[in-house]
Amino acid sequence: MLKTFYNILLHNGIATYRYKNSHAPEQKRLQMAHLEQQTRQGVLFAVRNKEDFSKHGVKGYIINSKERLLEDVARLSHFTPNVYRFGAYTDTKRTIVHGFVETNLQQINAFVVDIDTKAFSVQDILLACLDDSIGAPTAIVASPRGYQVYFVLSEPLFISNKNDFQGLKVAKRIAANLKTSLQAVQADPYCNDFGFFRAPTEQNLVWVQLEQTYSIKQWIDWSMRQQEDAPFYAVRPNPSTNNLMHTDWFHALVNSAHIKGAKGQIGRNNTLFTLALICYSEGKSANEAFDIIDEFNANLHQPLAHHELTTVVRSAYSGRYRGASKQYIEELLALYVPHQQFELPTGGWYKFKKERHERSRSHYTEWEADIIAYITAQKCTTGPFIWRSQKQLCEALNMPQSSLNEIIKKSEQLVLIRKGKGRGAKTGWTTVAIYINYVRTQAQKLSQQKSALRISLWSFIAETNFIASIACTKLIEQLYQIMPYKLPKLVGNSG
C-alpha cells in the first residue's frame, strides 16, 4: 500500500530506481530509464529527526529515486512531498541541504495542511474536510502533536518562471484558502505551503483513500468560490501610499513588551519577522530594519538572542517574500493589543520590491547562486568539474544566455575550463571552493607517495586550460598559498 501511495503522490517526478546500487533487476531498470528519459526527474529533501531543523540550516539529504525513498522512509522524520528541480549541499561533509525554495519547485504534487493539536479526532478532521473544504483528503498522517492532511493532485502542477511564476502564485492562493477552510480544526495558517512535512509510513497513516485525488481545475474552481470577492490570480497592486510604519497599530505592536508566544500561538519570532517585512515593504534598508527590531526586542520581557535577529532580517530581505500579511497582522494585534481597535487599510496594502527579473543586480547574484547550487548538486565524482555546454546549463536553470554571459564575466566564484576546439569543444564548470577542496584532497592522498606521483597533481593543474576570469585569478592566489612550490602557468589562452 505504501508503494502505491508514493506512486500516486509523486507521479513521475523522481526516478523509479537508484542510479547506483539498485536492487531491481537490470531489465526493469533499463526499461524505466528509457521511459523516464521522456520526462524530467527532480529531487526530494529528507531529514531523519525533527531536531535536524535548526538556525544553522537543515541537516538532511537529497533523495532522487522512489526506490531510495521506500528503503529509507521508515527512518525518516520529514520530507518534501513536492518535487524540486535540483538540490545541493552547502558543506563539504554533505550534511546541510540547500535548494528547497519555492522558485526551485519543479512540480506540486499535493497540498498539505498541518493541524498542530490532538484536540480533534480523525473523524472530526474528515467531517471538516467534507463540510467546510473541497472534500475528503487522500491521506491523514499522525504526528506526535497533531496531524497532517494530504490532498494529492491527480496530475502534478508544473512550476516555471513564465509569467512571473504565475502557476506558483495560483498554488499559493489555493493553499491559503485550503488552510482557511479548515480553521474549525485549527489548521495552521502560517505553515510553509510547500516545505517539509511528516513522511507517511505504515505506522503513522491513520486514513488513506488513494482514489481521492483532485485535478488542478477542481482546485481552481473551488478556490474561486471560496474567495469570490477577491481576484484569484495574484496581481501585484500599485505601490501603497500608506506609510505603515507611521500608523497607530504599528506603534502599538512595537510597544508591546509582553510578547512571548505559546504552543499554537504566534509569538516573538513571528512578530519580529512581520515587523522586518513591513520595513522591507516600506523600502527601508536591512540595517534600518535591524535597528528597529533590535530596539523592539530589547524592550521585550523575554527577548530573543542577538544572533537570531540577524537571521530574521536576512530571511525577510531574502527576496522570497512580498510583505507582511494583513491577516497575520490582524491576529498579532488581536493577541497582543486586545483592548484597542485598529482599522487596517483595505487596498494597496503592499509596496513591493521589484520582481527578480526586474532587478538587474539581484538578478545577477541570484542566478550566480543558482549556478553554484547546480554545480554542487551535479558535481562529478571523478574530478572537480561538471561538463555542460552553456546551452545545457541555461536550459537546466531556465536562464537567458545573455545573463549567463554576464555572470561569467563578473563572478568571483565560477571557474571554467575548455577542452577541444570548435564544435567538439567541451566546457567544464566548477567553483573556487570545489576546486581548492579537490586539490587539498588529492594532495593529502599523494602525501605519502613518491615525488613523481606528487608532481602528477602539478601536471593536472598546469595542463588544465583555465579560461581567464576574476574567479580564476582568485583560484590561482589560493593555490599559491596551499601548494608547496612554484606554481606553473595556469591560465590558457582560451579567454
Please characterize this protein's 3D structure.
The chain is an alpha+beta fold and 495 residues long. The protein folds into 3 domains: 225 residues, no CATH class; 93 residues; 122 residues, no CATH class. The chain is 40% helix and 14% strand. The protein has 17 helices and 16 strands. The strands form 4 sheets. The protein has a 5-stranded antiparallel β-sheet, sandwiched between helices. The protein has a 4-stranded antiparallel β-sheet with strand order 4-1-5-12. A 4-stranded antiparallel β-sheet has the order 2-3-8-7. Helix 5 crosses helix 6, helix 9 crosses helix 10 and helix 12 crosses helix 14. The chain is globular and about 75 Å long.
- Strand % is 5-15%
Shape: globular
Number of strands: 16
Uncertain ranges: 228-241, 347-362, 485-495
Main sheet properties? 5 strands, antiparallel
DSSP summary: helix tally: 17
